[in-house]
Specification:
Helix 8 crosses helix 16 (about 390-410). The strands form 3 sheets. A 5-stranded parallel beta sheet has the order 1-2-5-6-7, sandwiched between helices. The termini are far apart. It is α/β, with parallel strands linked by helices and about 425 residues long. It has helices at about 5-40, 50-60, 60-65, 80-85, 110-125, 135-145, 165-175, 205-215, 230-235, 260-270, 280-285, 290-305, 315-325, 330-345, 375-385, 390-410; strands at about 45-50, 90-95, 130-135, 150, 155, 175-180, 220, 245, 275, 350-355.
Length: about 425
């Protein structure tokens, strides 16, 4: 073949390739979707923060001593067994959440924490074919093989530790595997990102003892909710890697201290820890609040002018269409942006995970991640961005397993 014919043949090949590219891309997207669903079932998915226990408490557990039946569809919240199985969720950390106001009543924070722990264990005992407690990565793996959803527990707000250091070990024995040092207000342990009082300038002297004791007994230190000063002091003191169980990157939410700054994410990576990305739209997008306020104002005015409720057929139809055109919520792509950012800062996929805050952030969840059935949508987005299966396995569970095992190793050698 002469040079002219060769060039003509090459041109024809390029032209055919160019014409077929859209079809190939569409096929790839379909493949990504199917692969994402496959991986969601193949890999263990650990979620660092699901607020089901508090949701059950709000439903009257402390009075009725009866757990919600989340073994079947319970569409009033973000979590139940059928949707979790559909989405591939295997180990949601049950948040033993202690509202800040309870820390001001002597003994009540501990009483409340004990109640939520009892309730979580009762859920597993009531529906043993669906749920099982888990106190280690090995437990999660065994439950996964048995087709059960594990219920590891993390305590959100260290207030139940009160001022008695022996309570750290007591909670470890009851099954608590991480403690978020504080919540919305400074407590006896540390300062909160939401509280401008800055009572201790970071960790209190007692808080320093608590961190050391958590390292000793094998409880992961969770730095979600803490002030920046607290974070840096924990980095200096902890002999084991730490987690942020449900935080995102401050780069996308300037001025929102509840998220982590770039220097903090880098330090967490150097510490071999994990930031588990929060799905709440206010954690993902600094412009969300303004969009949401405009959206809500329009909806309220439209309903008032027509004397309708949201459940009226005319309103349902209108709001569905209006939301399609003016969706104020964040989206799956933004969650992936946060993961990308952590990967860029830390030089790989070893320090990022999932910490949705399902049942904890109200009506602020992103489009495409509204409940526990939708993890495949995030996996699909990561596949489209070029993440490997091993990368996704790390994000889904391997990273947090690494930290969890290391914390246990440090405790065993203490």
């Amino acid at each position: 073949m002469n040079q002219r014919n060769l060039l003509a043949s090459l041109a024809l090949i390029l032209f055919i390739s160019a014409c077929s590219e859209p079809k190939e891309k569409q096929t790839d997207q379909a493949d990504f979707s199917a692969k994402a669903k496959e991986l969601a079932q193949e890999f263990i998915i650990v979620d660092g923060h699901v607020d089901l226990p508090y949701r059950m408490e709000q439903g009257g557990f402390m009075v009725q001593q009866k757990v919600l039946n989340v073994s079947v569809d319970a569409a009033d919240g973000n979590f139940d067994y059928p949707r979790a199985k559909a989405g591939g969720l295997d180990a949601p950390f049950m948040s033993i959440y202690i509202p800040s106001q309870y820390q001001y009543i002597d003994g009540y924070a501990k009483k409340f924490a004990d109640s939520l722990i009892t309730m979580t264990k009762q859920l597993a005992n009531t529906y043993p074919d669906q749920f099982a407690m888990a106190y280690s990565p090995a437990d999660v793996e065994a439950n996964f093989k048995a087709g059960k959803i594990s219920l590891p527990m993390g305590m959100e707000n260290g207030a139940p530790v009160e001022d008695d250091i022996t309570l750290v070990e007591e909670f470890q024995k009851k099954g608590i595997r991480y403690i978020t040092l504080t919540h919305g207000k400074d407590n006896k342990i540390s300062d909160s990102s939401y509280d401008t009082t800055r009572t201790h300038g970071g960790l209190s002297e007692y808080g320093k003892q608590v961190v050391a004791e958590m390292n000793r007994v094998g409880i992961m230190v969770d730095i979600s909710h803490v002030s920046d000063d607290t974070f840096w002091q924990v980095m200096e003191l902890s002999t084991a890697p730490v987690i942020a169980s449900h935080s995102s990157a401050r780069k996308f939410t300037p001025g929102f201290e509840r998220n982590m700054g770039d220097d903090m994410i880098k330090a967490l990576g150097e510490n071999d820890g994990v930031i588990m990305i929060n799905f709440g739209s206010s954690f993902l997008d600094g412009e969300y609040r303004a969009r949401r306020a405009e959206y809500d104002e329009h909806v309220i005015n439209w309903l008032a002018e027509r004397e309708l409720s949201k459940n009226d057929p005319e309103a349902v139809a209108y709001l569905e269409e209006y939301t399609k055109q003016n969706d104020p919520w964040s989206n799956v792509e933004k969650v992936a942006d946060h993961i990308d950012h952590v990967v860029k800062l830390t030089g790989g996929t070893d320090n990022v995970g999932i910490g949705s805050d399902f049942d904890g952030v109200g009506d602020s969840l992103p489009t495409g991640l509204k409940d526990v059935s939708m993890y495949p949508n995030l996996i699909e987005e990561l596949l489209e961005r070029g993440y490997s299966e091993e990368d996704i396995a790390k994000i889904c569970y391997k990273n947090v397993f690494r930290v969890w095992n290391k914390v246990e190793e440090v405790a065993a050698n203490s």
